[in-house]
Amino acid sequence: MSLLDLTLSRIAVVVYFAAAVLTGLEALLGKARLNLLRNLAIVLGFLIHTVALITRTVQTGQVPMTDLFEYTLFMAWALVLVYLLFFRKRLPVAGTLVVLIVVFLLLGSAANLFYSDPSGGMMPALKSNWLYVHVSLAALGEVFFAIGFASSLVYLIRKRSADQASLDALDDLTYRAVSMGFPLFTAGAMVAGVIWAKQAWGAYWSWDPKEVLSLVVWLVYAIYLHARLVRDLRGTGVHLISMAGFILTVFTIFGTMIFGGLHSYG
Question: 184: Cβ–Cβ under 8 A, 6 or more apart, which residues?
Fold first, then answer.
């Protein structure tokens, strides 16, 4: 069994950790020149991470989304990609640090706790194109939720010391991230998920623990969007909802380890 995907994943973890340390030093010391080193470290980690993802794809002969190792590998990669494309210049340094810590924990867990043999093959229930629609869109939605979590956490930390303009920018950033993630999560986890469930298990809904937890996540973010968009509520309350949503999201991802169920393979 080739362990190249695992080796590359662990190297990427180390590089992301270095990027997080540089970001932390930048936040503490206020030295802008660390910004270049931090960005270089993030890009280097992302490139190594990308090669790890490609290597896993070559080893298995399929898009790596079928178990917990592959899901966390993909989600961590997508989080860095979304950060680099959309939020690198919008998130403050502290927010970038939170994102890097989430990436480090996701990929570190994948590389050290959840690694699976790439030659193991795919179980019959997973052999559907709906799998890739379901998993990829759900993961992308969760990635935007992670960005919202980062900006909400920074908002709460800075609430008493930052000027109102900075707080408003963080509030808008959280709203933008969640409003981008919610339709992706809805399409992937809820719509494509039930279609795939019907094909794989013969029922649209089975009250599987992961299905129930995903529904709870969806409801929490629906409450956030209702409060923010319809009620125009801002401040501590909505940011606590945003953070609770992502904490529940993480629990949903790893909940199969506790509850088992039809999703216990991933």
Answer: 137, 138, 140, 141, 144
